[in-house]
Amino acid sequence: MDIGRHHLALWAIAAAGLFVLPSLVGSGILRTLILANYLAIFAISWDVLSGRTGYISFGQPFLIGIGAYTTAILTKRFDVPMEISIPAAVLVTMVGGLIVLLPALRLRGSYFALVTLALMELCYQLVQVIRPDITGGTRGMSGLPTLTRGASNGYYLSTGLMLTIALTAWMLMRTRLGLALSAIGMDEGAVQGAGLSPTRLKSFAFLASAFIAGLGGAFYTHYLGSIAPRALFDITFLFTILAAALIGGSGTVIGPILGAFFLTFLLEWLRPLLPGAERYFVYGLVALLLYMYQPAGILAIIERVRVRLFGDSRSG
Amino acid sequence: MTIALGISDLGKRFGGLVAIDGLSLAIDDGESVGLIGPNGAGKTTIIGLIMGELRPDSGRIDLFGKDISPLGVAERIRCGISRTWQIPRPFANLSVIENIRIGSMPDSLRGMIFDRSDPIRERELAMSVGLAKNDLERKASDLAMGDLRKLEMARTLAAGARILLLDEVFAGLTVGEIDHIAAVIQNLRSRGITFLIVSHDLPALAPLIDRAVAIDRGRVIAEGPLDDILDHPDVRDSYLGR
Ligand SMILES: Nc1ncnc2c1ncn2[C@@H]1O[C@H](COP(=O)(O)OP(=O)(O)OP(=O)(O)O)[C@@H](O)[C@H]1O
Ligand SMILES: [Mg+2]
Question: Which residue's CA is the closest to the ligand 1 atom numbered 6?
């Protein structure tokens, strides 16, 4: 897997393309790209945990919600500057990651997934019951400070954040740690039998996943400038995150990004055709069909096309 | 002679079933012991207890004179003891070399992230159990049973094992593969590795062990040279049905 000269050139062209993009496309497309970037971050967060270790988590909205609410409350109610509230939000989300971890030390498979799903619903209920004067109750909060003004700055910030997270995750997953996490997904007992501590590895995966979710959630909130519990602790949001990772190609870093962009643009293109809720039906159907056609995801489809066009040279 | 593995008065129940019943056993450093007994005698359970995967109800286990009862699985492996499984458990989607890499990793996140793997040692380990050069990049799920058993041995050796517990090493193998595995075991014996080998295939087992222990219903019923204990009336009864 040497990075050849033409690879570097490709990356340079891609980077330049990303940089000049805002002057080429309208702000509508830029806003869609911003949403896609955040969805990609959330899908990477899911994949670092579930795509590797095989612990299928439904807890991402819970984690993202903790990050979003922490920074929203700190900035709105206590006038804490974002430079402090965002790192604080990430830390609090990592504590939340430990809460998701606890059932994973005892439960596997669908039981674990169900418990994490319950956390999401629990949060939705709690936000309304506990101090609605602080959380904003069912209506959420608006008028939060934003990090950027205008679509193109929002685009640069979200792209930079997404690429930084993606690159870090990619480098981490290329190490032996990434290998050990995938091995957990195949046979946790055999990982233990190889002298490694699955609990330590799992804890790392949960914390890394929570870190990304908290960071993404906090930035996302300060992009939107508002927070709405029903949009956050919601099954559609959860479904979109999982679908992005799965139909993009889970167990990789590039897959969830591809999936996130595909789904976000699909949803936008469907909007004028199907203005109502039936859009989500078509969208779910497309995701499902794609997944049934190629469970290894869009990445595998691209790879197959590449092989057909250029032959099976595994140079890159 | 130092005792590599000492088991005294080990007991384990599963609900109402007494799987291991006050069992004692000592294996010298560098010795190879065969563990035989009918189905359900408790052979696999003993291995699980030694490794710390199962918690005993009574008794103690010493490794080179040190009580390992309080240690977890990973710590016991670091003390130099490893097992293979009756049904091999490779990491199916990883290559042969990656499987071995998992075995040779340090059990620390920092080491996994920042230290490089040692491809030369990984190759040597693969070769030492008789895996071929062009098998190294193959996916473990594509391997035949004989190669899977070799891979498991390489993985345990990668973890630094000096005592190997082999559960039904010959199960599911062709005659040719049995010869291969036997040669690998002989080679490791000559290098001083200590063995506890569970097998139903007595002719294949015989040349690989210094002595045998026969158990039934979690108890030792005979101990000594394999030929002698096969003549033992209790052993015959246990094999012919109860
Ligand atoms: N996890 C478990 N829960 C309940 N009973 C168990 C468990 N593991 C083993 N047993 C029982 O304990 C007894 C000993 O089982 P064990 O697997 O150790 O036998 P074995 O000698 O390895 O047999 P085999 O030759 O069939 O592999 C059997 O009666 C088995 O049914
Ligand atoms: Mg058994």
Answer: B14
